[in-house]
Amino acid sequence: MRRTFSVVLGVALLLGSAAPTLAVKPAGNCPNWNSGFDLVDSAEWWARSVVGFETEGISVYVDGDPTNGFTAEFDEFASTLGFADGQAFHEFIVGEQWDVLDTNDDQFVCMKPFPHTPGNPAYLFSAVDNTTSA
Fold first, then answer.
1. Could you tell me the residue range of the domain that residue 41 belongs to?
2. What predicted TM-score, i.e. pTM, was given to this entire model?
3. Is residue 17 in some structural domain?
4. Could you write out the three-class secondary structure of the chain?
5. How far apart are CA 134 and CA 122, in angstroms?
6. How many domains does the chain fold into?
7. Is 124 inside a domain boundary?
8. Digits of tens for pLDDT over the chain (134 positions)?
């Protein structure tokens, strides 16, 4: 079943890891029923999310470096969403949120940003699990 999810963001770059994990793309691909979706792993999802936060003026990492931890600004943003801090928000995205999206459990989903408008911040995405291979 194909389900599209509107999500606040997605991720899976482990905090402190500067290089994304390389993964082999699965046989399944993004659905052709709707153009504009890109096949991504969780590290790319997170990287695009960080760009979205930064586009909205929310600094994610101290001095832009993941090894320095999250900024107070990102912690405050996370708390407005009901999380204890940026780390708790990150853990939710890496864990629960990613698991809901990756229904075939192959570590890939298809993502597409919503149009960036006053009602749609740059960190909002549409997502659907990639198709499973036969």
1. 37-129
2. 0.74
3. no
4. CCCCEEECCCCCCCCCCCCCCCCCCCCCCCCCCCCCCEEECHHHHHHHHHHHHHHCCCCCEHHHCHHHCECHHHHHHHHHCCCCCHHHHHHHHHHHHHHHHCCCCCCCEEEEECCCECCECCCCEEEEECCCCC
5. 35
6. 1
7. yes
8. 334 333 433 333 323 333 344 455 555 678 766 678 889 998 898 888 899 999 999 999 999 999 999 999 999 999 999 999 999 998 888 788 888 999 989 999 999 988 889 889 999 988 888 875 43
